[in-house]
Specification:
Function: May mediate the reduction of outer membrane cytochrome b5.
CATH topology of the largest domain: Rossmann fold
Catalytic activity: 2 Fe(III)-[cytochrome b5] + NADH = 2 Fe(II)-[cytochrome b5] + NAD(+) + H(+)
Number of domains: 2
CATH superfamily of the largest domain: Nucleotide-binding domain of ferredoxin-NADP reductase (FNR) module
CATH class of the largest domain: Alpha Beta
Number of helices: 7
Helix content: 10-25%
Radius of gyration: 20 Å
Structural class: alpha/beta
Strand order of the largest sheet: 4-3-6-1-2-5
Order of helices and strands: HEEEEEHEEHEHEEHEHHE
Largest sheet: 6 strands, antiparallel
Cofactor: FAD
Distance between the termini: 26 Å
Organism: Trichoglossum hirsutum
Subcellular location: Mitochondrion outer membrane
Length: 334
């Protein structure tokens, strides 16, 4: 955290800049990025959420797909074993893992069309030699939904995290079981005038998926504001991708980074996501058709929006967003 006086002085130009940005007429293909990374993460907006936890023991591989057939179709399809194709070290605790889809012309199947886009995740399954039950965890791929032949996961390893530890220990050509997709928030062009994304750590992956869907559709003029919190500068994931969006769409996208342990040269925000910060940089609850999305560690949910009760139940709205006057249906928790 940084001193209150310094924080206020830092917020003043943010507030001035935001209000100018929020009243600008959208320009075709505009996005503006200022990133503030914080230890707490994401703000969410209400919507439909579906989570299928049915576990089937068999692993299946679809046969004979035509071009661009989806690898994952949900329902009773069962688990699909995908081969690890490549590994990229992103930072001290994060890797990007590329898995080959069953056929080189497959797409993932995480959405049907941009006009009816569903933010979605996939379930992963692993059972170690001494495990009584398999470990199953959801991950949101960061690869484009129309990418053919592969999908990418961004995986941060956590202490005592059985799935993240297994993924970090995998070698090229090993297989992992996947199932899905798990639809989350349905999106179509211009569904909201402005969305605010509040994320922490790897909670950035569904935010990136939604942001990419918005800006890859030339008919979608939605504005996006991102507040992204992390511990250190090297923990900021997908920073280059967001900077590219900022440079390409300067009138519609802004991102604010917060760091809990910033270097001496850091000029962004410091500390945790606060009520004062969110009031200054994201659209208010009465500023039109607004949606707020939240995703991150438990501490972020508790402080910003309140936790979900279950994958199917968003729970009550509490925390900073409730104090600022947002309604439950304006917030979605990934």
């Amino acid at each position: 955290m940084f001193a209150r006086q310094a924080f206020r002085s830092a917020l003043q130009p943010m507030k001035t800049s935001f209000h100018r940005y929020s009243t600008e007429a959208p320009k075709s293909g505009g996005i503006n990025t200022l990133l503030i990374a914080g230890v707490v993460g994401a703000v969410g907006a209400g919507g439909y959420y579906y989570y299928n936890t049915t576990v089937q023991s068999e692993t299946v591989i679809p046969q004979g797909p035509s071009k661009a057939d989806p690898a994952f179709i949900g329902g009773d399809q069962g688990w699909i074993g995908l081969k690890l194709e490549s590994i990229e070290t992103v930072n001290h605790n994060t890797k990007k893992l590329r898995f080959a889809l069953p056929h080189k012309d497959n797409v993932s199947g995480l959405h049907v069309a941009l006009i009816n886009f569903l933010t979605a995740a996939l379930l992963t399954k692993y059972k170690g030699p001494g495990d009584e039950k398999p470990t199953i965890r959801p991950y949101t791929p960061i690869s484009a939904e129309d990418a053919r032949g592969y999908l990418d996961l961004l995986v941060k390893v956590y202490p005592n995290g059985p799935m993240s530890s297994h993924l970090h220990s995998m070698n090229v050509d090993q297989r992992l079981d996947f199932k899905g997709p798990i639809p989350k928030y349905p999106w179509e062009a211009n569904k909201h005038d402005h969305v605010a994304l509040i994320a922490g750590g790897t909670g950035i992956t569904p935010m990136y998926q939604l942001t990419r869907a918005i800006f890859s559709n030339p008919n979608d003029k939605t504005k996006v504001t991102l507040v992204f919190g992390n511990i250190s500068e090297e923990d900021i994931l997908l920073k280059r991708e967001f900077e590219d969006l900022e440079n390409t769409y300067p009138q519609r996208f802004r991102a604010f980074y917060l760091l809990d342990k910033p270097p001496a040269s850091w000029t962004g925000g410091k500390g945790y996501v606060t009520k004062e910060l969110l009031k200054a940089v994201i659209p208010g609850p009465k500023d039109g058709n607004i949606k707020v999305f939240v995703c991150g560690p438990p501490g972020l949910y508790k402080a910003v929006s309140g936790e979900k009760r279950s994958p199917q139940d968003q729970g009550e709205l509490s925390g900073i967003l409730q104090e600022l006057g947002y309604s439950k249906d304006q917030v979605y928790k990934f």
